[in-house]
């Protein structure tokens, strides 16, 4: 591991500068033009030829050792969040890296730099594909819906989109390291998945003072729907780790007019696809009930979010061994059982290939909150880069024996990317959910 340490340390200043520079220019998913350009410049200066995504930000590049082996995918996420109360957010947009993706970018630069050293590659067999990937944070659903309608993207998550575009074809195993506010480097079983929802309540406008009886209040219908969603929470099975959290993104246009249109966004999260789809059907029923109670209509646009992340057990042990070798002074929080209740599109990759998505410390505050900061870039970026390089080494040394074995032993939930993406497409459903008959009859479409 000495060669890895020396190779990463050589680029310490570049890594630490990147962490600060990217923190200062946050951009949300599919808008990361500056961030992608910044990383493209550094990668090209390091001698890499890039395959750009083109109509969206992000890129891939590949190192070929010249020896037959396996292909390892290493990812860094380039998008930010929105938190308008963060002291260092972009004052115009509210964008801020309050989940630490900027540190991932810096670490990926460290990995890319270290892999230019022939001594690091000397004992490796196969290929290493590096990827700066957009749009992990599942937000701004309306914006992404418009991109989808225009045919620019098919999937809301960047990894899902890159998978669809073929950028991960031929990959045998994948890895990335996320930042965490925890004290230790962490390796866990995984996290839950989700469906993304956009909901439009459709009422009828009228004068709120002069003739409210002539209107249909879409905001009241939405409130009834949200209350109904809250009422079904006790019917959800605790072991399924279901999380439902709608927000109103538009609640009316003028205080003196009955709101005609109100929009919501939400996720339905769960431990398994069965749990997610079951909870989603209950939520749709509740939301539709809110519209029925006021005589409004409702359009529900269900779109695949992210698959549950299930880290490969073999890859978990690779990460543990690598950490013990390259970071002997650090404690490792290792759990084969612990499942987080966030979501990531790394879960989509875990449905078809062995992956590992562990965590590096170095940040403080509340993840996604207005007090989040990276306070120890040495751990969040430099040590993260070393850890990822050490994992690559363990996977690809000795003729890539371990990567090949992990791939052979892996039993994927879906046999191929085509099968997985076809399943994801079945989760799509949109359109008005209520039809009012002239005879007073009502028909409802739940899904």
What does this molecule look like?
The chain has 447 residues and is α/β, with parallel strands linked by helices. It has two domains: 2-191 and 308-413, Aminopeptidase (3-Layer(aba) Sandwich), CATH 3.40.630.10; 194-306 and 428-444, Alpha-Beta Plaits, CATH 3.30.70.360. It is built from 13 helices and 24 strands. The chain has helices spanning 2-9, 12-23, 33-45, 101-114, 118-121, 141-149, 158-165, 218-231, 273-294, 313-326, 346-350, 377-409, 417-426, and strands at residues 51-52, 59-64, 70-77, 81-82, 95-96, 126-133, 173-175, 178-179, 185-187, 190-191, 193-202, 243-244, 247-250, 261-270, 297-304, 309-310, 332-334, 339-340, 355-356, 359-360, 363-364, 373-374, 434-436, 442-444. A six-stranded mixed β-sheet has the order 1-2-6-3-7-19, sandwiched between helices. Strands 11, 12, 13, 14 and 15 form a five-stranded antiparallel β-sheet that branches. It has a three-stranded mixed β-sheet with strand order 16-10-18. Helix 1 packs across helix 4 (101-114). The N and C termini lie far apart (53 Å). 51% of the residues are buried. The model has no long low-confidence stretch (mean pLDDT 97).
